[in-house]
Amino acid sequence: MTAVATADGLSLEAVWDRADDEVHTVAVVCHPHPLQGGTMHSPLIREIARYLAEHGFAVLRFNFRGVGSSQGEWGEGIAEIDDVAAAVAAASAAHPDLPLGVAGWSFGAVTSLRWQARDGNTAPWVGLAPPVRLTVGGGLLDLPEPEGLLPARRLFLIGDRDQYTDWPTLCDYATRAAARCERVKGSDHFFHLKHRAVAGLVAAHLAARPW
Hints:
two-stranded antiparallel sheet; about 210 residues; Rossmann fold; single chain
């Protein structure tokens, strides 16, 4: 275990998954909704981290504030943007000479893309089934306006049976954001039985090469 320090003085619980051989890319992986049981130990998050580590990545996954041993409390989905920024800063500091990519699932995808828009970040990014409009704590947390994103290599993945994310709406958003949008056949919002396949797609996109 390790810790990530946020700009507002919190310590976030985090863990590294690293390749046994030479590392070529560092990645930050963001978990789903904290109020719905999402943690850095969610099965899909763990499988993505494991797969990436097997294929030459150093992966930092972390718990958002108020989750697990992370300090703080639910920040309405706004303060959590600072958590992403802190994790990315920690990953970059640990591997300053490596290219960095970011991936997130559902809430983690929305929050990490909002971070990219806010901070003008252009790292390769993968969003797994992000709702275009996400109800959080009684409010709505939307994906950022596409016009507010700087050009970057971005990929949206969604199961063709997703219960929460509408394929045409998401792909319209992706088009406006100049991003790719792909469906995972036979899969729902949780990508049941497709974890390793999804992890492979994440790895290929972040490293810009097939596996």
